[in-house]
Amino acid sequence: MAYLIEVLAQKRLLDKKISEIKEILCIEQTDTLAEELFNLFEMRQRLLLNINTANTLSEIDIGGTRVSIATAVEIRDTIKSKIEVLTSLIRNKNCTLDKLELQSQRDKYHEEFILLTMGITRNDLQVRVNQEG
User: Fold this and answer.
1) Pick from 26, 22, 18, 12: which is nearest to 42 by CA?
2) Strands of 1-133, DSSP E
3) pTM for this one?
4) Rounded CA gap, 80 and 86, in Å?
5) What pLDDT does 62 receive?
6) What is the rounded CA–CA span in Å between residue 79 and residue 117?
7) Which residues does the chain have with pLDDT short of 70?
8) For the chain, what are the domain ranges?
């Protein structure tokens, strides 16, 4: 058994390894590298299934409504996308929208993003995940 935050760290490491092996395979192709890549894909899939199960079973309170962590992660990711769009508009010299108003909107989204991230992280630090294969 591991905490969900540990499993997420393992997934990030696997993502990095997969990316590295893909780059190596573009230059040098061997059976060993190809086999390692497919093994890493399988390991990543197992981790993703464990993460998804844990996120679906765990809940968080958002504005008085209980939602699964999986839903909270989707909401957080959407808020992050909105922040990125607003930042892009603010930095765009050709954008004629009110930059102070855009910053104000971004600040509100940022507050929501921080609160959701804190709730999700708190969950990740408490939830135990069975990693048996």
Assistant:
1) 18
2) 2-3, 59-62, 65-68, 128-129
3) 0.81
4) 10
5) 86
6) 11
7) 132-133
8) 2-129
